Amino acid sequence: MTKAVHRIILLTSIFIFLCALLLSPMEAQSVSAATPSNTVYQERVFHSHSGIGKFYMGREIAKVMGHQEALWLERPNRAIQEQPNQVVNALALKPTDVVADIGAGTGYFSFRITPLVPKGKVLAVDLQPEMLDIIEFLKKENNITNVEPILGSLTDPDLPTSVDLALMVDAYHEFSYPREMMQAIVRALKPDGRVVLVEYRGENPFIAIKALHKMSQKQVRQEMQAVGLQWLETKNFLPQQHVMVFGKQQT
Ligand SMILES: C[S@@+](CC[C@H](N)C(=O)[O-])C[C@H]1O[C@@H](n2cnc3c(N)ncnc32)[C@H](O)[C@@H]1O
User: Fold this and answer.
1) Atom 13 in ligand 1: residue holding the nearest Cα
2) Which of 56, 80, 118, 138 is the most exposed place for a label (fewest CB within 10 A)?
3) Pair 30, 65: CB distance under 8 Å
């Protein structure tokens, strides 16, 4: 074999080795530092532009929507697209219920729930203090007393009390520690409490939302099962999203 052939073989081997290294899932360093469940997540170098490069149960986690896009959450045509009043009515709340709206954003859903729980309250949790400032402003502006803005962390919504219902609208897919978040939510859930997720339908390729901002029912169900929740029903009355209802697994 000539020197040139040797060199080609050597360079090809190095190239293949580097490709394999870059493409293989790596355990998330940051996760292992933050939590003992360090095999739950994987990080990949090559990933979607709208994701964070971290994978959970086969799906890539989406980037958090920044507070700079708060106005988008309040866009007028959202009422037609996402029918928020029908969603909150479908929750069949009791006046005394305590509802946690996790990943509340501007409180688009929180403020639609408050009139339905006059003897209870809404815990409006978000990661971004700027979102909570908006909720605080709207609370004072509209003289609403039964909403409590809460600054959560990446791994824990820091719920101060047990809840009848934990609602996540267009939010769960961007939790960067979904396992830890859901475990904390399940701990705070009353024995007969419910968890409701509203997500754009991942099964439907014609829904014009970025893939990582949609979730299939199959995926949601397996992720909820992993934290001890059982699927109760899916309400399919929305044009583009599914409303999935879960309760604690009966032992
Ligand atoms: C797309 S917005 C939806 C807001 C609101 N649910 C709505 O439907 O108008 C998602 C929100 O989830 C929040 N979020 C993301 N990860 C979170 C976490 N781990 N804990 C609490 N909030 C989180 C983001 O800051 C953002 O405000």
Assistant:
1) 103
2) 80
3) no
| List of residues 6+ apart from 110 with CB closer than 8 A | 101, 104, 122, 124, 135, 147
Å from CA of 192 to ligand 1 middle: 25
Q: Residue 241: which residues within 8 A CB-CB, separation 6 or more?
A: 82, 170, 198, 199, 200, 201
Pocket-forming residues, ligand 1, beta carbon under 6 Å: 64-65, 73, 102-105, 108-109, 125-128, 131, 152, 154, 157, 169-171, 174-175, 181
Cα(15) to ligand 1 centroid in Å equals 41
The pTM of this model reads 0.87
- Burial environment of residue 1 by CB neighbours within 10 A (0 to 12, 13 to 18, 19 or more): exposed
Identify the residue whose tokens are 């994987």. 42
Distance CA 228, CA 248 (A): 6
pLDDT digits (tens, 9 = 90+) for 103-136: 999 999 999 999 999 999 999 999 999 999 999 9
How confident is the model over 68-113, as pLDDT tens digits?
999 999 999 999 999 999 999 999 999 999 999 999 999 999 999 9
Record the tokens describing residue 237, joined without a space.
């009355």
Of 3.50.50.60, 3.90.380.10, 1.20.120.10, 3.40.50.150, the CATH number of 80-248 is 3.40.50.150
SS3 of residue 70 by DSSP? helix
Distance CA 82, CA 98 (A): 23
Tokens matching residue 73: 């959450």
User: With b meaning 16 or more CB within 10 Å and e meaning fewer, what string describes 83-94?
Assistant: bbeebbebbebe
